[in-house]
Amino acid sequence: MSGNLHMFVMAAPLVGALTVNLAGRASRKAVLPLVLGFLTLSLVAALGTMAGVLEHGAFTYTVGNWQPPFGIELRIDHLSSLMLVLVSAVALIASFASLQSVAKDLADRQHHFFTLYLILVAGLHGLILTADAFNLYVLLEITSITTYGLIAMGRGRAPLSSFNYIIMGSIGACFYLLGVGYLYILTGTLNMADIAARLPQVNGTVAVATAFAFMLVGLWIKMAFFPLHGWLPRAYNDAPIGAGVLVAPLMTKVTIYLMLRVMFSVFSPQYEFFQHPDVQNLVVWGAALGIICASALALGQRDLRRMLTYIIVAEVGYMVGGVWLANGTGLTGAVLHIVNDALMTLCLFLVAAAIISRNGSLAFDRLQGLYRRMPWTMAGFTLGAFAMIGVPPTCGFFSKWYLILGGIEARQWPYVVALVFSSLVNAVLFFRIIEIAYFRGGKGHGHDDHGPVTEAPAMILAPLLVSAAALVLVGLATGPLVSNLIAQFVPVF
Amino acid sequence: MGGFGAEIVAKYNYWIYVLLMMIGFYAMIAKRNLVKKLLGMNIFQTAIILMFVSAGVKHGAAIPILDKHEVLEHGVHAASVVNPLPHVLMLTAIVVSVSVTGVALAIMQRIYRRYGTLEEDEILEKIGE
Fold first, then answer.
1. ipTM of the complex
2. I need a labelling partner for B38 at 20 to 30 A (CA). Which of A251, A378, A385, A415 fits?
3. What are the C-alpha distances in Å from A199 to residues A74, A189, A207, A212?
4. pLDDT, tens digit (0-9, with 9 covering 90-100), for B57-72
5. Structural domains of chain B in order of their starting residue, each with its CATH number
6. Substitution target from A163, A184, A237 for chain B, most B beta carbons within 10 A
Protein backbone atom coordinates (compact mmCIF):
# COMPACT_ATOMS: atom_id res chain seq x y z
CA MET A 1 0.00 0.00 0.00
CA SER A 2 1.41 3.34 -0.96
CA GLY A 3 0.06 5.07 2.15
CA ASN A 4 -0.80 8.68 1.64
CA LEU A 5 1.76 9.58 -0.99
CA HIS A 6 -1.01 10.94 -3.25
CA MET A 7 -1.82 13.56 -0.62
CA PHE A 8 1.61 15.06 -1.17
CA VAL A 9 0.85 15.50 -4.85
CA MET A 10 -1.85 17.96 -3.88
CA ALA A 11 -0.35 19.27 -0.64
CA ALA A 12 3.05 20.20 -2.11
CA PRO A 13 1.80 22.96 -4.43
CA LEU A 14 -0.66 24.16 -1.78
CA VAL A 15 2.04 24.53 0.88
CA GLY A 16 4.25 25.93 -1.86
CA ALA A 17 1.68 28.63 -2.62
CA LEU A 18 1.73 29.87 0.97
CA THR A 19 5.50 29.66 1.21
CA VAL A 20 6.07 31.46 -2.06
CA ASN A 21 3.71 34.23 -1.04
CA LEU A 22 5.48 34.80 2.28
CA ALA A 23 9.07 34.27 1.14
CA GLY A 24 8.55 36.08 -2.16
CA ARG A 25 7.45 39.16 -0.24
CA ALA A 26 10.79 39.20 1.55
CA SER A 27 13.04 38.33 -1.34
CA ARG A 28 12.32 38.08 -5.03
CA LYS A 29 15.06 35.51 -5.48
CA ALA A 30 13.27 33.00 -3.28
CA VAL A 31 10.44 32.52 -5.78
CA LEU A 32 12.28 30.48 -8.38
CA PRO A 33 13.79 27.72 -6.19
CA LEU A 34 10.60 27.42 -4.14
CA VAL A 35 8.30 27.05 -7.14
CA LEU A 36 10.56 24.52 -8.84
CA GLY A 37 11.15 22.66 -5.59
CA PHE A 38 7.51 22.21 -4.65
CA LEU A 39 6.46 21.29 -8.20
CA THR A 40 9.27 18.72 -8.40
CA LEU A 41 8.10 17.27 -5.08
CA SER A 42 4.59 17.06 -6.49
CA LEU A 43 5.81 15.30 -9.64
CA VAL A 44 7.88 12.78 -7.65
CA ALA A 45 4.89 12.01 -5.42
CA ALA A 46 2.68 11.63 -8.51
CA LEU A 47 5.13 9.19 -10.07
CA GLY A 48 5.24 7.27 -6.79
CA THR A 49 1.44 7.16 -6.69
CA MET A 50 1.32 5.85 -10.24
CA ALA A 51 3.90 3.17 -9.44
CA GLY A 52 1.81 2.19 -6.42
CA VAL A 53 -1.37 1.95 -8.47
CA LEU A 54 0.37 -0.10 -11.16
CA GLU A 55 1.62 -2.50 -8.51
CA HIS A 56 -1.34 -2.77 -6.13
CA GLY A 57 -4.27 -1.56 -8.18
CA ALA A 58 -6.78 1.22 -7.55
CA PHE A 59 -7.70 2.25 -4.03
CA THR A 60 -9.80 4.79 -2.16
CA TYR A 61 -8.67 7.03 0.66
CA THR A 62 -10.77 8.66 3.34
CA VAL A 63 -9.50 12.07 4.35
CA GLY A 64 -9.21 12.52 8.09
CA ASN A 65 -10.62 9.01 8.55
CA TRP A 66 -14.21 10.23 8.24
CA GLN A 67 -15.81 7.22 6.65
CA PRO A 68 -17.72 7.71 3.40
CA PRO A 69 -20.43 8.61 2.58
CA PHE A 70 -20.11 11.20 5.38
CA GLY A 71 -16.49 12.11 4.92
CA ILE A 72 -14.82 13.08 1.67
CA GLU A 73 -13.37 10.20 -0.21
CA LEU A 74 -10.50 10.29 -2.69
CA ARG A 75 -10.28 7.79 -5.46
CA ILE A 76 -6.93 6.86 -6.93
CA ASP A 77 -7.21 4.55 -9.91
CA HIS A 78 -5.24 4.08 -13.10
CA LEU A 79 -6.79 7.01 -14.89
CA SER A 80 -6.46 9.45 -12.00
CA SER A 81 -2.85 8.46 -11.33
CA LEU A 82 -2.08 9.04 -15.01
CA MET A 83 -3.75 12.45 -14.81
CA LEU A 84 -1.81 13.31 -11.65
CA VAL A 85 1.47 12.61 -13.43
CA LEU A 86 0.33 14.54 -16.50
CA VAL A 87 -0.74 17.62 -14.53
CA SER A 88 2.31 17.72 -12.29
CA ALA A 89 4.68 17.15 -15.22
CA VAL A 90 3.06 19.84 -17.38
CA ALA A 91 2.97 22.24 -14.42
CA LEU A 92 6.68 21.69 -13.74
CA ILE A 93 7.74 22.02 -17.38
CA ALA A 94 5.57 25.09 -17.89
CA SER A 95 6.83 26.72 -14.70
CA PHE A 96 10.31 27.23 -16.18
CA ALA A 97 8.94 29.34 -19.01
CA SER A 98 6.52 30.99 -16.61
CA LEU A 99 9.30 31.99 -14.23
CA GLN A 100 11.28 33.51 -17.08
CA SER A 101 8.45 35.49 -18.64
CA VAL A 102 6.84 36.60 -15.37
CA ALA A 103 10.19 37.87 -14.05
CA LYS A 104 10.27 40.07 -17.13
CA ASP A 105 6.62 41.16 -17.44
CA LEU A 106 5.38 41.30 -13.83
CA ALA A 107 8.61 41.69 -11.89
CA ASP A 108 7.08 43.20 -8.74
CA ARG A 109 4.14 40.83 -8.67
CA GLN A 110 6.04 37.57 -9.10
CA HIS A 111 5.07 36.11 -5.75
CA HIS A 112 1.40 36.95 -6.33
CA PHE A 113 1.47 35.30 -9.72
CA PHE A 114 3.07 32.11 -8.45
CA THR A 115 0.80 31.92 -5.41
CA LEU A 116 -2.12 31.70 -7.84
CA TYR A 117 -0.16 29.38 -10.13
CA LEU A 118 0.52 26.88 -7.35
CA ILE A 119 -3.02 27.04 -5.93
CA LEU A 120 -4.28 26.33 -9.44
CA VAL A 121 -2.02 23.27 -9.67
CA ALA A 122 -3.18 22.07 -6.25
CA GLY A 123 -6.81 22.58 -7.29
CA LEU A 124 -6.30 20.57 -10.47
CA HIS A 125 -4.80 17.71 -8.46
CA GLY A 126 -7.75 17.90 -6.07
CA LEU A 127 -10.20 17.72 -8.97
CA ILE A 128 -8.48 14.59 -10.21
CA LEU A 129 -8.48 12.89 -6.83
CA THR A 130 -11.88 13.69 -5.41
CA ALA A 131 -14.70 11.17 -5.34
CA ASP A 132 -17.27 13.54 -3.91
CA ALA A 133 -19.63 15.44 -6.18
CA PHE A 134 -19.84 18.58 -4.04
CA ASN A 135 -16.14 18.64 -3.27
CA LEU A 136 -15.63 18.59 -7.02
CA TYR A 137 -17.68 21.79 -7.33
CA VAL A 138 -15.60 23.55 -4.70
CA LEU A 139 -12.33 22.53 -6.33
CA LEU A 140 -13.69 23.48 -9.74
CA GLU A 141 -14.27 26.98 -8.42
CA ILE A 142 -10.82 27.08 -6.78
CA THR A 143 -9.18 26.35 -10.12
CA SER A 144 -11.48 28.79 -11.90
CA ILE A 145 -10.98 31.67 -9.48
CA THR A 146 -7.20 31.33 -9.67
CA THR A 147 -7.43 31.21 -13.45
CA TYR A 148 -9.53 34.40 -13.51
CA GLY A 149 -6.81 36.09 -11.49
CA LEU A 150 -3.99 34.79 -13.64
CA ILE A 151 -5.70 35.88 -16.85
CA ALA A 152 -6.54 39.32 -15.48
CA MET A 153 -2.81 39.94 -14.92
CA GLY A 154 -2.33 40.14 -18.68
CA ARG A 155 -1.92 43.30 -20.69
CA GLY A 156 -4.41 45.23 -22.77
CA ARG A 157 -7.95 43.96 -22.69
CA ALA A 158 -7.12 41.03 -20.39
CA PRO A 159 -9.30 42.27 -17.47
CA LEU A 160 -12.35 42.44 -19.73
CA SER A 161 -11.69 38.97 -21.13
CA SER A 162 -11.24 37.70 -17.61
CA PHE A 163 -14.53 39.31 -16.54
CA ASN A 164 -16.40 37.63 -19.37
CA TYR A 165 -14.77 34.35 -18.40
CA ILE A 166 -15.97 34.89 -14.81
CA ILE A 167 -19.56 35.30 -16.00
CA MET A 168 -19.44 32.23 -18.24
CA GLY A 169 -17.44 30.19 -15.75
CA SER A 170 -19.91 30.97 -12.97
CA ILE A 171 -22.84 29.91 -15.12
CA GLY A 172 -21.04 26.63 -15.79
CA ALA A 173 -20.20 26.02 -12.14
CA CYS A 174 -23.74 26.94 -11.01
CA PHE A 175 -25.25 24.53 -13.52
CA TYR A 176 -23.02 21.80 -12.20
CA LEU A 177 -23.99 22.67 -8.61
CA LEU A 178 -27.65 22.61 -9.57
CA GLY A 179 -27.21 19.12 -11.02
CA VAL A 180 -25.53 18.02 -7.80
CA GLY A 181 -28.46 19.49 -5.87
CA TYR A 182 -30.94 17.45 -7.88
CA LEU A 183 -28.92 14.30 -7.29
CA TYR A 184 -28.67 15.07 -3.60
CA ILE A 185 -32.42 15.54 -3.32
CA LEU A 186 -32.96 12.27 -5.19
CA THR A 187 -30.42 10.09 -3.43
CA GLY A 188 -29.53 11.89 -0.20
CA THR A 189 -25.80 11.51 -0.70
CA LEU A 190 -22.90 13.30 -2.36
CA ASN A 191 -20.35 10.52 -2.55
CA MET A 192 -19.96 9.51 -6.20
CA ALA A 193 -19.90 5.74 -5.59
CA ASP A 194 -22.84 6.07 -3.21
CA ILE A 195 -24.86 8.08 -5.73
CA ALA A 196 -24.04 5.50 -8.39
CA ALA A 197 -25.29 2.71 -6.10
CA ARG A 198 -28.57 4.48 -5.36
CA LEU A 199 -29.34 5.88 -8.81
CA PRO A 200 -30.88 2.67 -10.22
CA GLN A 201 -33.73 3.04 -7.70
CA VAL A 202 -34.76 6.36 -9.21
CA ASN A 203 -33.58 5.62 -12.71
CA GLY A 204 -35.60 6.81 -15.65
CA THR A 205 -37.19 9.77 -13.90
CA VAL A 206 -37.11 13.20 -15.46
CA ALA A 207 -35.31 14.55 -12.40
CA VAL A 208 -32.32 12.27 -13.01
CA ALA A 209 -32.17 13.34 -16.63
CA THR A 210 -32.33 17.00 -15.56
CA ALA A 211 -29.51 16.49 -13.07
CA PHE A 212 -27.40 14.78 -15.72
CA ALA A 213 -28.10 17.52 -18.25
CA PHE A 214 -27.25 20.31 -15.79
CA MET A 215 -24.00 18.68 -14.72
CA LEU A 216 -22.87 17.97 -18.27
CA VAL A 217 -23.79 21.38 -19.68
CA GLY A 218 -22.04 22.98 -16.73
CA LEU A 219 -18.87 21.08 -17.48
CA TRP A 220 -19.20 21.76 -21.21
CA ILE A 221 -19.24 25.48 -20.53
CA LYS A 222 -16.12 25.07 -18.39
CA MET A 223 -14.33 23.06 -21.09
CA ALA A 224 -15.46 25.37 -23.93
CA PHE A 225 -17.30 22.71 -25.91
CA PHE A 226 -18.63 24.29 -29.09
CA PRO A 227 -20.98 26.31 -29.12
CA LEU A 228 -20.30 27.20 -25.47
CA HIS A 229 -16.70 28.19 -26.28
CA GLY A 230 -17.16 31.94 -26.65
CA TRP A 231 -15.07 32.92 -23.65
CA LEU A 232 -12.02 30.77 -24.35
CA PRO A 233 -10.19 32.32 -27.32
CA ARG A 234 -10.14 35.81 -25.81
CA ALA A 235 -9.32 34.67 -22.28
CA TYR A 236 -6.44 32.43 -23.32
CA ASN A 237 -5.12 34.86 -25.88
CA ASP A 238 -5.06 37.82 -23.48
CA ALA A 239 -3.61 35.86 -20.55
CA PRO A 240 0.01 36.63 -19.66
CA ILE A 241 2.41 34.30 -21.46
CA GLY A 242 3.38 32.73 -18.15
CA ALA A 243 -0.24 31.84 -17.38
CA GLY A 244 -1.08 30.64 -20.90
CA VAL A 245 1.52 27.88 -20.83
CA LEU A 246 -0.14 26.38 -17.74
CA VAL A 247 -3.81 27.16 -18.25
CA ALA A 248 -4.15 26.31 -21.94
CA PRO A 249 -2.80 22.75 -21.77
CA LEU A 250 -4.47 21.74 -18.52
CA MET A 251 -7.82 23.41 -17.79
CA THR A 252 -9.89 22.02 -20.66
CA LYS A 253 -8.26 18.61 -20.41
CA VAL A 254 -8.92 18.22 -16.69
CA THR A 255 -12.54 19.25 -17.30
CA ILE A 256 -12.83 16.46 -19.87
CA TYR A 257 -11.56 14.12 -17.18
CA LEU A 258 -14.31 15.45 -14.90
CA MET A 259 -16.87 14.71 -17.59
CA LEU A 260 -15.55 11.12 -17.64
CA ARG A 261 -15.90 10.97 -13.85
CA VAL A 262 -19.49 12.20 -13.96
CA MET A 263 -20.37 9.87 -16.83
CA PHE A 264 -18.72 6.73 -15.52
CA SER A 265 -18.38 7.11 -11.73
CA VAL A 266 -21.72 8.77 -11.01
CA PHE A 267 -23.87 7.73 -13.94
CA SER A 268 -23.29 4.60 -15.97
CA PRO A 269 -22.55 4.01 -19.65
CA GLN A 270 -25.79 2.07 -19.71
CA TYR A 271 -27.66 5.21 -18.65
CA GLU A 272 -26.15 7.81 -20.94
CA PHE A 273 -25.52 5.74 -24.06
CA PHE A 274 -28.23 3.13 -24.30
CA GLN A 275 -31.25 4.56 -22.50
CA HIS A 276 -31.13 7.69 -24.63
CA PRO A 277 -29.49 6.85 -27.97
CA ASP A 278 -30.83 10.07 -29.50
CA VAL A 279 -28.93 12.15 -26.99
CA GLN A 280 -25.79 10.18 -27.72
CA ASN A 281 -26.14 10.78 -31.46
CA LEU A 282 -26.87 14.43 -30.88
CA VAL A 283 -23.72 14.96 -28.79
CA VAL A 284 -21.51 13.25 -31.37
CA TRP A 285 -23.05 15.36 -34.13
CA GLY A 286 -22.53 18.44 -32.01
CA ALA A 287 -18.91 17.48 -31.50
CA ALA A 288 -18.46 17.00 -35.24
CA LEU A 289 -20.02 20.38 -35.94
CA GLY A 290 -17.85 21.93 -33.25
CA ILE A 291 -14.66 20.48 -34.72
CA ILE A 292 -15.49 21.78 -38.18
CA CYS A 293 -16.55 25.26 -37.04
CA ALA A 294 -13.62 25.73 -34.67
CA SER A 295 -11.18 24.59 -37.37
CA ALA A 296 -12.74 27.00 -39.82
CA LEU A 297 -12.47 29.82 -37.28
CA ALA A 298 -8.81 28.90 -36.70
CA LEU A 299 -8.24 29.39 -40.43
CA GLY A 300 -9.36 32.99 -40.14
CA GLN A 301 -6.81 34.00 -37.49
CA ARG A 302 -3.68 35.97 -38.29
CA ASP A 303 -1.92 35.47 -34.97
CA LEU A 304 -0.26 32.28 -33.73
CA ARG A 305 -1.71 32.29 -30.21
CA ARG A 306 -5.23 33.17 -31.33
CA MET A 307 -5.05 30.36 -33.86
CA LEU A 308 -3.97 27.94 -31.14
CA THR A 309 -6.91 28.90 -28.93
CA TYR A 310 -9.34 27.91 -31.69
CA ILE A 311 -7.45 24.65 -32.18
CA ILE A 312 -7.99 23.97 -28.46
CA VAL A 313 -11.74 24.37 -29.00
CA ALA A 314 -11.60 21.94 -31.92
CA GLU A 315 -9.63 19.45 -29.83
CA VAL A 316 -12.26 19.61 -27.08
CA GLY A 317 -14.70 18.48 -29.78
CA TYR A 318 -12.40 15.52 -30.59
CA MET A 319 -12.43 14.33 -27.00
CA VAL A 320 -16.09 14.91 -26.18
CA GLY A 321 -17.05 13.19 -29.43
CA GLY A 322 -14.65 10.33 -28.75
CA VAL A 323 -16.15 9.70 -25.33
CA TRP A 324 -19.71 9.83 -26.65
CA LEU A 325 -19.01 7.38 -29.49
CA ALA A 326 -19.99 4.79 -26.88
CA ASN A 327 -17.36 2.24 -27.72
CA GLY A 328 -14.09 1.20 -26.13
CA THR A 329 -11.94 2.35 -29.03
CA GLY A 330 -13.35 5.85 -29.06
CA LEU A 331 -13.07 6.15 -25.29
CA THR A 332 -9.47 4.92 -25.35
CA GLY A 333 -8.73 7.45 -28.04
CA ALA A 334 -10.35 10.24 -26.03
CA VAL A 335 -8.40 9.42 -22.87
CA LEU A 336 -5.17 9.10 -24.83
CA HIS A 337 -5.94 12.39 -26.50
CA ILE A 338 -6.28 14.08 -23.10
CA VAL A 339 -2.61 13.21 -22.49
CA ASN A 340 -1.46 13.97 -26.01
CA ASP A 341 -3.36 17.20 -26.42
CA ALA A 342 -2.04 18.51 -23.10
CA LEU A 343 1.51 17.87 -24.31
CA MET A 344 0.92 19.27 -27.82
CA THR A 345 -0.72 22.41 -26.47
CA LEU A 346 2.07 22.80 -23.93
CA CYS A 347 4.68 22.49 -26.67
CA LEU A 348 3.01 25.02 -28.97
CA PHE A 349 2.30 27.53 -26.20
CA LEU A 350 5.94 27.27 -25.15
CA VAL A 351 6.87 28.01 -28.77
CA ALA A 352 4.62 31.07 -28.57
CA ALA A 353 6.37 32.09 -25.34
CA ALA A 354 9.78 31.63 -26.96
CA ILE A 355 8.86 33.61 -30.06
CA ILE A 356 7.35 36.45 -28.06
CA SER A 357 10.43 36.66 -25.84
CA ARG A 358 12.61 37.46 -28.85
CA ASN A 359 10.25 38.61 -31.57
CA GLY A 360 7.75 40.56 -29.48
CA SER A 361 4.84 39.60 -31.72
CA LEU A 362 3.00 36.50 -32.83
CA ALA A 363 1.26 38.04 -35.83
CA PHE A 364 1.84 35.91 -38.92
CA ASP A 365 3.49 38.66 -40.93
CA ARG A 366 6.06 39.13 -38.18
CA LEU A 367 7.17 35.50 -38.20
CA GLN A 368 9.30 35.78 -41.33
CA GLY A 369 12.72 34.20 -41.24
CA LEU A 370 12.21 32.66 -37.83
CA TYR A 371 13.73 29.34 -38.84
CA ARG A 372 17.07 31.06 -39.28
CA ARG A 373 16.81 33.26 -36.21
CA MET A 374 15.43 30.66 -33.80
CA PRO A 375 16.28 27.24 -35.24
CA TRP A 376 15.74 25.21 -32.07
CA THR A 377 12.44 26.89 -31.22
CA MET A 378 11.18 26.27 -34.72
CA ALA A 379 12.35 22.65 -34.59
CA GLY A 380 10.12 22.27 -31.53
CA PHE A 381 7.34 24.09 -33.37
CA THR A 382 7.64 21.70 -36.31
CA LEU A 383 7.30 18.68 -34.01
CA GLY A 384 4.32 20.23 -32.24
CA ALA A 385 2.73 21.06 -35.57
CA PHE A 386 3.26 17.49 -36.81
CA ALA A 387 1.65 16.17 -33.64
CA MET A 388 -1.36 18.46 -34.09
CA ILE A 389 -1.73 17.39 -37.71
CA GLY A 390 -1.28 13.78 -36.69
CA VAL A 391 1.93 12.67 -38.40
CA PRO A 392 3.41 9.42 -37.05
CA PRO A 393 5.38 8.76 -34.87
CA THR A 394 4.28 11.81 -32.87
CA CYS A 395 1.64 11.10 -30.25
CA GLY A 396 -1.09 13.08 -32.03
CA PHE A 397 -1.28 10.41 -34.70
CA PHE A 398 -2.05 7.54 -32.34
CA SER A 399 -4.92 9.12 -30.44
CA LYS A 400 -6.43 10.41 -33.67
CA TRP A 401 -6.13 6.92 -35.09
CA TYR A 402 -8.06 5.47 -32.15
CA LEU A 403 -10.68 8.20 -32.45
CA ILE A 404 -11.19 7.63 -36.17
CA LEU A 405 -11.37 3.84 -35.69
CA GLY A 406 -13.89 4.38 -32.91
CA GLY A 407 -15.93 6.64 -35.18
CA ILE A 408 -15.94 4.03 -37.94
CA GLU A 409 -16.87 1.32 -35.44
CA ALA A 410 -19.80 3.41 -34.20
CA ARG A 411 -20.75 4.36 -37.79
CA GLN A 412 -20.68 8.04 -36.88
CA TRP A 413 -19.62 9.26 -40.29
CA PRO A 414 -19.99 13.01 -39.65
CA TYR A 415 -17.57 12.68 -36.74
CA VAL A 416 -15.05 10.78 -38.88
CA VAL A 417 -15.35 13.36 -41.65
CA ALA A 418 -14.92 16.16 -39.11
CA LEU A 419 -11.74 14.55 -37.75
CA VAL A 420 -10.24 14.17 -41.22
CA PHE A 421 -11.31 17.68 -42.18
CA SER A 422 -9.78 19.12 -39.02
CA SER A 423 -6.50 17.27 -39.64
CA LEU A 424 -6.36 18.74 -43.13
CA VAL A 425 -7.12 22.21 -41.81
CA ASN A 426 -4.40 21.78 -39.20
CA ALA A 427 -2.01 20.83 -41.98
CA VAL A 428 -2.94 24.00 -43.86
CA LEU A 429 -2.66 26.12 -40.71
CA PHE A 430 0.74 24.90 -39.69
CA PHE A 431 2.31 24.65 -43.14
CA ARG A 432 1.21 28.22 -43.76
CA ILE A 433 3.25 29.27 -40.73
CA ILE A 434 6.15 27.02 -41.69
CA GLU A 435 6.09 28.58 -45.14
CA ILE A 436 6.15 32.12 -43.73
CA ALA A 437 8.82 31.36 -41.16
CA TYR A 438 11.03 29.23 -43.40
CA PHE A 439 10.83 30.57 -46.92
CA ARG A 440 9.88 34.19 -46.58
CA GLY A 441 11.74 37.05 -45.06
CA GLY A 442 15.24 36.70 -46.48
CA LYS A 443 16.47 39.01 -49.18
CA GLY A 444 16.55 37.17 -52.45
CA HIS A 445 16.93 33.51 -51.63
CA GLY A 446 18.03 34.42 -48.19
CA HIS A 447 21.06 32.60 -46.88
CA ASP A 448 22.07 33.78 -43.42
CA ASP A 449 21.46 37.38 -44.32
CA HIS A 450 18.61 37.92 -41.93
CA GLY A 451 20.49 38.79 -38.80
CA PRO A 452 22.20 36.58 -36.29
CA VAL A 453 20.72 33.63 -34.48
CA THR A 454 18.83 34.97 -31.48
CA GLU A 455 17.56 31.87 -29.79
CA ALA A 456 15.09 32.06 -26.90
CA PRO A 457 16.43 32.10 -23.34
CA ALA A 458 17.36 28.68 -21.97
CA MET A 459 14.58 28.84 -19.36
CA ILE A 460 12.05 28.72 -22.20
CA LEU A 461 14.01 26.72 -24.74
CA ALA A 462 14.83 23.81 -22.44
CA PRO A 463 11.21 23.04 -21.43
CA LEU A 464 10.18 23.55 -25.03
CA LEU A 465 12.61 20.91 -26.24
CA VAL A 466 11.64 18.56 -23.40
CA SER A 467 7.96 18.85 -24.32
CA ALA A 468 8.74 18.39 -28.02
CA ALA A 469 10.74 15.25 -27.21
CA ALA A 470 7.86 14.06 -25.02
CA LEU A 471 5.56 14.25 -28.06
CA VAL A 472 7.64 11.60 -29.82
CA LEU A 473 8.37 9.54 -26.70
CA VAL A 474 4.72 9.39 -25.62
CA GLY A 475 3.83 8.54 -29.21
CA LEU A 476 6.26 5.62 -29.19
CA ALA A 477 5.05 4.54 -25.74
CA THR A 478 1.39 4.50 -26.81
CA GLY A 479 1.19 0.69 -26.62
CA PRO A 480 2.21 0.26 -22.96
CA LEU A 481 0.34 3.45 -22.02
CA VAL A 482 -2.91 2.08 -23.37
CA SER A 483 -2.54 -1.47 -22.13
CA ASN A 484 -1.25 -0.67 -18.63
CA LEU A 485 -3.17 2.44 -17.70
CA ILE A 486 -6.00 3.42 -20.02
CA ALA A 487 -7.37 -0.06 -20.70
CA GLN A 488 -7.84 -0.49 -16.94
CA PHE A 489 -10.28 2.39 -16.95
CA VAL A 490 -12.24 1.78 -20.13
CA PRO A 491 -15.41 -0.12 -19.21
CA VAL A 492 -16.63 -3.00 -21.31
CA PHE A 493 -19.65 -1.99 -23.34
CA MET B 1 -56.37 24.49 -13.87
CA GLY B 2 -56.56 22.44 -10.69
CA GLY B 3 -53.67 20.04 -11.34
CA PHE B 4 -51.14 22.55 -12.53
CA GLY B 5 -52.13 25.27 -10.08
CA ALA B 6 -52.00 22.86 -7.18
CA GLU B 7 -48.56 21.73 -8.28
CA ILE B 8 -47.26 25.28 -8.30
CA VAL B 9 -48.67 25.96 -4.83
CA ALA B 10 -47.37 22.69 -3.41
CA LYS B 11 -43.83 23.31 -4.64
CA TYR B 12 -43.83 27.09 -4.61
CA ASN B 13 -40.28 27.21 -3.22
CA TYR B 14 -38.91 25.57 -6.36
CA TRP B 15 -40.89 27.87 -8.62
CA ILE B 16 -39.47 30.86 -6.80
CA TYR B 17 -35.96 29.56 -7.27
CA VAL B 18 -36.57 28.95 -10.97
CA LEU B 19 -37.93 32.47 -11.36
CA LEU B 20 -34.99 34.02 -9.52
CA MET B 21 -32.55 31.94 -11.52
CA MET B 22 -34.08 33.08 -14.79
CA ILE B 23 -33.86 36.73 -13.70
CA GLY B 24 -30.20 36.27 -12.85
CA PHE B 25 -29.51 34.37 -16.05
CA TYR B 26 -31.17 37.06 -18.13
CA ALA B 27 -29.11 39.79 -16.47
CA MET B 28 -25.87 37.88 -17.05
CA ILE B 29 -26.56 37.24 -20.70
CA ALA B 30 -28.50 40.26 -21.89
CA LYS B 31 -27.24 43.24 -19.87
CA ARG B 32 -24.35 45.23 -21.30
CA ASN B 33 -23.34 46.88 -18.04
CA LEU B 34 -20.71 44.93 -16.11
CA VAL B 35 -22.18 45.76 -12.69
CA LYS B 36 -25.59 44.50 -13.79
CA LYS B 37 -23.97 41.32 -15.07
CA LEU B 38 -22.31 40.79 -11.72
CA LEU B 39 -25.59 41.43 -9.90
CA GLY B 40 -27.24 38.91 -12.19
CA MET B 41 -24.56 36.42 -11.26
CA ASN B 42 -25.25 36.98 -7.58
CA ILE B 43 -28.99 36.52 -8.04
CA PHE B 44 -28.28 33.35 -9.99
CA GLN B 45 -26.09 31.95 -7.24
CA THR B 46 -28.54 32.99 -4.51
CA ALA B 47 -31.34 31.17 -6.32
CA ILE B 48 -29.37 27.94 -6.17
CA ILE B 49 -28.57 28.49 -2.51
CA LEU B 50 -32.29 28.98 -1.84
CA MET B 51 -33.06 25.76 -3.68
CA PHE B 52 -30.69 23.74 -1.52
CA VAL B 53 -31.83 25.32 1.72
CA SER B 54 -35.54 24.97 0.93
CA ALA B 55 -34.94 21.34 0.01
CA GLY B 56 -33.66 20.80 3.54
CA VAL B 57 -36.78 22.15 5.25
CA LYS B 58 -38.55 19.69 7.50
CA HIS B 59 -41.78 20.79 9.20
CA GLY B 60 -41.90 20.39 12.95
CA ALA B 61 -38.25 19.41 13.25
CA ALA B 62 -35.75 20.90 15.67
CA ILE B 63 -32.23 22.14 15.12
CA PRO B 64 -29.72 19.29 14.83
CA ILE B 65 -28.03 19.66 18.22
CA LEU B 66 -28.36 16.39 20.06
CA ASP B 67 -27.75 15.18 23.58
CA LYS B 68 -25.01 12.58 23.35
CA HIS B 69 -26.30 10.36 26.15
CA GLU B 70 -29.85 10.43 24.93
CA VAL B 71 -28.77 9.54 21.40
CA LEU B 72 -26.65 6.66 22.71
CA GLU B 73 -29.64 5.34 24.64
CA HIS B 74 -32.57 5.94 22.30
CA GLY B 75 -30.98 6.62 18.92
CA VAL B 76 -31.93 9.53 16.65
CA HIS B 77 -35.45 10.07 15.36
CA ALA B 78 -34.74 11.35 11.88
CA ALA B 79 -38.10 13.13 11.71
CA SER B 80 -37.36 15.24 14.78
CA VAL B 81 -34.20 16.96 13.55
CA VAL B 82 -33.41 18.99 10.45
CA ASN B 83 -30.76 17.59 8.16
CA PRO B 84 -27.90 20.10 8.48
CA LEU B 85 -26.03 18.99 5.37
CA PRO B 86 -27.74 21.25 2.78
CA HIS B 87 -27.08 24.26 4.99
CA VAL B 88 -23.46 23.30 5.47
CA LEU B 89 -23.03 22.82 1.74
CA MET B 90 -24.52 26.22 1.11
CA LEU B 91 -22.16 27.85 3.59
CA THR B 92 -19.39 26.62 1.32
CA ALA B 93 -21.27 27.75 -1.76
CA ILE B 94 -21.71 31.21 -0.21
CA VAL B 95 -17.98 31.39 0.41
CA VAL B 96 -17.35 30.45 -3.22
CA SER B 97 -19.86 33.02 -4.40
CA VAL B 98 -18.31 35.76 -2.24
CA SER B 99 -14.83 34.95 -3.54
CA VAL B 100 -15.94 35.04 -7.16
CA THR B 101 -17.71 38.34 -6.52
CA GLY B 102 -14.58 39.69 -4.87
CA VAL B 103 -12.37 38.74 -7.79
CA ALA B 104 -14.91 40.14 -10.24
CA LEU B 105 -15.10 43.45 -8.36
CA ALA B 106 -11.32 43.74 -8.28
CA ILE B 107 -11.14 43.10 -12.02
CA MET B 108 -13.96 45.55 -12.60
CA GLN B 109 -12.00 48.19 -10.73
CA ARG B 110 -9.07 47.65 -13.06
CA ILE B 111 -11.37 47.92 -16.07
CA TYR B 112 -12.84 51.16 -14.73
CA ARG B 113 -9.43 52.68 -14.07
CA ARG B 114 -8.28 51.91 -17.59
CA TYR B 115 -11.38 52.79 -19.60
CA GLY B 116 -13.32 55.09 -17.29
CA THR B 117 -16.58 53.23 -17.87
CA LEU B 118 -18.27 49.96 -17.08
CA GLU B 119 -20.52 49.85 -20.15
CA GLU B 120 -19.31 46.99 -22.29
CA ASP B 121 -20.15 48.76 -25.55
CA GLU B 122 -18.19 51.87 -24.61
CA ILE B 123 -15.22 49.78 -23.49
CA LEU B 124 -15.18 47.87 -26.77
CA GLU B 125 -15.40 51.19 -28.60
CA LYS B 126 -12.37 52.48 -26.70
CA ILE B 127 -10.43 49.30 -27.40
CA GLY B 128 -11.29 49.93 -31.03
CA GLU B 129 -13.12 46.87 -32.21
1. 0.91
2. A251
3. 20, 10, 11, 11
4. 888 888 888 888 888 8
5. 2-127 (1.10.287.3510)
6. A163
